[in-house]
Here is the input.
Amino acid sequence: MSTSEVNQTRGAAAAVNAGSLSDGNGDLAGPLPEWWASVERAFQTLLTWPDDWDSYGAAAPRREAVDAARVLLTVLVRRLDVVEPYPSATRNGGVFLEWRRNGHEIDVEIESLTDITFAYENMQTGEQVCGESKSADENTALLLGLLEQHFCQ
Here is the structure.
């Protein structure tokens, strides 16, 4: 991550209320997991996708959504030793982060820092948990708990 991207991430994080989407210190600097560079390349690639990238009229991924995904993921890795997610785009210009591990799947859709939804499924039992956040703090504890329980190293 370049210095300008770190500053951009810090600036976006400053917009988040002190609370669940904060590392507790208000500082998102520090070492990142080894897989971070791979995810950052995927984020940068998403920003090059044009409108209609899926040939069905999908909107190009928006910078706001990519930046929000970067901030959310930064907060998550500051709190948990989470495994690498698979980033992609949503049809409406958002970012999609997916984790699959040991029969568990969690999908997180990020439109902005104040518009995040997630769905968890235990593929063996069929258990499902969904959450929607219209503020920076809603459902973050539930998301963190699911990630910690099933997607940490």
User: Anything to note?
Assistant: The two ends are 23 Å apart (CA to CA). The longest strand covers residues 104-112.
